[in-house]
Amino acid sequence: ITQPSDSDFENSSFVVLKPADVRQMLATLDSMQSMTGRGQPDTVFMNHAIHSLGIDYLLPNLLGDVFEPVNKSYYAGVYDYIVFANSPKALESFISHVEGGYILAKDAAYKDFINDHVESESGVYLYNNPALSPLIYREYLNTPSAETLKKHQGIFRKFKGLSMQLSFMKGMFY
Questions:
Q1: What are the residue ranges in the chain where pLDDT is below 50?
Q2: Which of 114, 118, 110, 105 shows the shortest CA–CA distance to 167?
Q3: What values do phi and psi take at 101, rounded to 5?
Q4: 77-88: per-residue pLDDT in tens?
């Protein structure tokens, strides 16, 4: 989930995948689109083709419930990544941010954080800026926890980075 402007995460939720070969993955997805016959016509935004497989809940069904916020199958190739979203407008917003340079890789505070606290390789990596995420937390916390968070929001906003990193070794994640 990117930084939402309200509690509706529909257009702020994305699944970003980095395949070994993005062109091959796009060709496979395009082939799936033509096989289903349910995909909508392609559009192009800032030189990025936006496609739809027309299959609702594809990612949650394949990858699990944690991917349920992205329940539509719109996708685009964005440099070395495949990005899935719930609508073409959501993908356009994502692409605009990437093309405009509004990405973590260019954020000085994030760069300092990863240099000090993150290993160079991992199987799963999650990052969050708690200071910018109160709407996200309130959505997922139970009511008493959400109230506690709201009560202590000033302290919570002092945290600029939180990450979890898992690496796969000898058949297990560490």
A1: none
A2: 118
A3: 85, 10
A4: 999 999 999 999
Greatest CA span in the chain, whole angstroms?
Answer: 52
Beta strand pairing status for 74-78 and 81-85? antiparallel
Contact 169, 128 (CB under 8 A): no
Rounded Cα distance, 26 and 20, in Å: 11
Q: What sign does the dihedral 95-8-87-126 (CA atoms) show?
A: positive
Structure tokens at 1: 């989930």
Give the integer Cα–Cα distance in Å for 135 and 53: 30
pLDDT 10s digits, 111-127: 888 888 787 777 777 88
